[in-house]
Amino acid sequence: MKRADLITGALLFVVAAYITHTAYGLTLWTTGRDSAPGPGFVPFVAGLSVMILSVALIIRALLSKETVNEKIFTKEKLKPLIIIGGGALGASLLVDYLGFILSMGLMGGFLTFALSEKRNWIHIAAITVIIPIAFHFIFTVGLSARLPVGIFGI
Length: 154
Prior knowledge:
Blueprint: H1 2-24, E1 29-30, E2 36-37, H2 41-63, H3 75-98, H4 100-115, H5 121-142
Antiparallel strand pairs: 1-2
Helix pairs in contact: 1-2, 3-4, 4-5
């Protein structure tokens, strides 16, 4: 795990540094009578948080007593990465047709199905239904966000 943690920490740090730098160019905080977080606030804080956590991961890996001779890219370790990447790609391709909420629900159901060792169909169906409902209430109702809608108008 030492080598994998070092590589992961370094990659996360670079990506988070880019996000933090880009977000800093946006408005972090609006001023005036209605002072509030600007569009760059959340990505800036998230990027900064990931940078801190990636440094912690690198330090933990460097202080670890483990040897560095393990294989990083094995079939067992790559399978979840390919499944998650495929699910994210599939959901992003479906957003234009089904809308954001339904696409994320299908992705959640697919990932639950593909990554579960024991396939409990009730659990998979619940995840597939609960995620779109939760996304609807959080983003559309709670935050009044306009998410991409699909052919069903959802």
